[in-house]
Amino acid sequence: MKIIKNSGNERVIDELRKCLVAQSTLDIASPSFSLFAFGEVRELLHKLNKCRVVLPNAKADDLGIVDSIADRPFRNRLQTRWLAKQCAEWIEKTTEIKRVPGVIPQATLITESSEKALNRVITGNCSFSTEGLGITPGNQFGLIQLSESAEECALLGSWFTSLWDSLPATPEAKNDFLSMLRELIEHKEPSLVYYLILYRLFKDMGEELDEERIIKSATGIRNTTVWKKLYKFQRDGVVGAIDKLERHGGCIIADSVGLGKTFEALAIIKYYELRNDRVLVLVPKRLRDNWTIYKANDRRNSLASDRFNYDVLNHTDLSRDGGLSGDIDLNHVNWGNYDLVVIDESHNFRNKATHKDRETRYDRLMRRIIQQGVKTRVLMLSATPVNNRLADLKNQIAFVTEGDDTALFDHGIPSIETTVRQAQLQFNRWLALEDTDRKPARLMDMLGFDYFKLLDMLTIARSRKHIEKYYGTAETGKFPERLKPINIKPDVDLSGEFRSIREINNEIRRLTLAAYAPLRYVLPHKQAAYDAKYSTQIRGGESFFRQADREESLVHLLRVNVLKRMESAVSSFSLTLERQLADVKATLAKLEAHESSIEEIDIEDVDVDDAAFESLLVGRKVRVLLQDVDLVRWRQDLTEDRNRLATLLSAARQVNPDRDAKLAALRQVISQKVTNQINTGNRKVIVFTAFADTAHYLYQQLAPWAHEKLGLNTAILTGTGRNKTTLPNLRNDLASILTAFSPRSKERPEELANEGEIDLLIATDCISEGQNLQDCDTLVNYDIHWNPVRIIQRFGRIDRIGSINTLIQLVNFWPNIELEEYINLEQRVSGRMVLLDISATGEENVIEQQSGNQMNDLEYRRKQLLKLQDTVIDLEDLSSGVSIADLTLTDFRIDLAGFLKDHQDHLDSLPLGTFAVTTTDDLGETAIPSGVVFCLRAVGDAALNVVEPGYPLAPHYLVHIGDDGTVLLPFNQAKQVLDRLKKLCIGRDLPDAVACARFDKTTRDGKEMSAVQDLLAKAVASIVGKKEERAVASLFTPGGTHAQKGEFQGINDFEVVAFLVILPESVPA
């Protein structure tokens, strides 16, 4: 007897190689059986005459067939399937297997041959594994004994035989083992590999979504009317949002236009109401009726049976200390007692301006509602951000974290502010790149991982494409097809006498608008006193925004407003000129009357919903003492303005409705639409304008004409309480008018059908968000809003999921001037408006500090508006960057949750290195290139030291490598890799027989895997290489370097969790 060290040349495998000769036998009793140990002695075992194997009665995992830690280098050869096939053939031909209950404490290997000198018995820590045979390093304290004498071999041989004979001889033992091997041999369906990858990703993060765990069935939420009205994708969004609300205390739903955010929010509200939580909904005043209707005992309330009981307050109510809002007395509201706050249009709170002597809405919302009283969860409904202002998101996230910058420290985000600031910095650098380099993939590469993690933790954002791609349209019905927009560029005056936009613009530019800028005329030695009195603190008091600067910004905006109103309708232009002229005359009169002081003028005709104006029209009234003012200069400027405004007004009044060329063009559009319907039987048209004055003018001119000539009933909605309709029996509130205009989408009860229908709706942007008006199929923009987002939001009223219309039409009225020239005019008329950004955000704008960025913004708008002349673009496509929908993983969690209900045990049983074979989805432009998608896991400190720190999916990495070794999608684009996996795998619930046969032929049943191994090496190199690239880059970054020293073994410090082989659709001839 001697001891085997099991290292160097003294290993168990070396002894077996000496004595396993042709026609010999081998007896094995082992606590484990490794396929890779079999692979190393495979050729010797095939020579055997007979083999008897005793194994514990355990599952494949416990036997260590493929999943032993020591076997990773062998697994990474990717030959598991071929080895399993070889092993199964050997067992069927040569081997008998018996199983014992309980454990086998130590292994025994007995060889016997006709040459007695070769008989050996090996016992001890020598299980049939790579460690036991000495192929990989094992436990050095495990004792292994070798018996070579004939007596010892005979004695131990008879012991094994008696043991063997005592065990029942049942075929199940061998069949069970073979079935484990067949499980490894069989090709897997692509969908299974997709779910396996998701399971491994999210299980380790503790973030798999379990609907049953998240939504307590006992609440009865699934029995509510609102839940039953939701589509599958909406229910998934609700589950995801509730999960984030419960985990983190907040969630931002930023689904794209037309996907029903309001109904998702109502389902979430109902869930919390069923738990007896108090709910507050904060809405912009113009959208108030969208929410109050669902809690009213009203026949038009399709959710009346759910008996909603939330409170509704306007955003502006946060600035009030008393009075009524609806039926709520603001004096006695217990602000701190709300368990859930829903903020509609939460992007209106994106700007955390700080004022010197009063709280802003933002401050009050934070202090009164979120920080005081009970723990408040915050659900925000936001427009899909066009993300050139990433800090806007930070201020919304602060509601979730109660303003605690380190609240997400335990989730891998040490500082929210730092995370967003770094992301903004990288975004600005990306914006500065040349067009050819400014690709979304490059931005994904530049932005920090913790920014993605932050978005993924707190946001749910799905786009229209996303829904069509992953949920299909079987349940929802298709989105309507968008016809090419009709672009109309009418003149102002049919008689051609009115001056051109260019000339009018020059006159507008010459206006000093002195009546609105009293501080401009304050004498120099008095300016400091006024600054002290009226300035606004920004950045917590670090700096100040001067009131005089605010006035100048306001003057710039007022000039743009005059130009915009002229472009909208000559009648609105006249009204604006009248008001400004009256303001100038009133100011002059006060100067002549020698009043002691003058107050700032109220500005009536600006669009206060415009965030830019809103931030300038707040604060205490400025009062200047006439003794502190340069009266001569002020009077001179006012007189010039009076004369110029009077001249412009005289010209504008000449263009009456009969001469109004734009109005005539609109009548023609409506007539043609009613005569040549794009969807049979549909005569409905919405006309949007930015200004209430224009809307009233259009109603006065169109309503009688439409009724008499076309038989259409007309209504006007302006959100300012002056709604009207030609339907005699209809109330003129917003809900009644919209229900009569779109009875199907508003689910009008049968008994209200006698109210009649409105076919022509004229509206301002009070209904450009949050309304489903899909009964209509034609939308007219009577004036082009400066913000392309608003145009798309308007169109979203009719461009909605589940529409009955096959086709929908957008009609845009443009100024009769080239777009580039128009935008340049606008830029000139507004002056250099860097101040606008500072005033609107309450902090220095990083972007604007870089020269030329104002032009970048104008260039961006020019490109988007040009696009809108040719096609209707999706909101998420507006951004030249990356949509939030590109960054969040909620949908994948929901996919996994659905699958886990019935298949968790199956996923748990799948071995490392599981793979499937499929083909590219199509041959078009969107075809997914062939190659391999790997899901890898970094193992141990050595690997984690050489991969990128802070990666949200760490230690897992997803990489798509092309057939030629090109990195098609690197690991930091995990969302896109998962998108590809989903597209290739969902619905492919059986192995692709043709693709598998091609793969087997190429690889000789999985034996020749060198090509895939090479791609694996490229995948690992791409992960490690990114870290090295960033480490080099960090040498030039203030604050030190990330470069670290560490030993790294390469591929074998990574585990192949699973992979998908993507073959080309057709084999080249």
From TrEMBL:
Pfam families: Helicase_C, ResIII. Coiled coil: none annotated. Residues 665-859 form the Helicase C-terminal domain. One of its GO terms (molecular function) is ATP binding. Transmembrane segments: none annotated. Keywords: ATP-binding, Helicase, Hydrolase, Nucleotide-binding. Residues 242-403 form the Helicase ATP-binding domain. InterPro entries: DEXDc_RapA, Helicase/UvrB_N, Helicase_ATP-bd, Helicase_C-like, P-loop_NTPase, SNF2-like_sf, SNF2/RAD54-like_C. CDD domains: DEXDc_RapA (cd18011), SF2_C_SNF (cd18793). GO terms for biological process: DNA repair; replication fork processing. SMART domains: DEXDc, HELICc. This is Helicase. It comes from Methylomonas methanica.
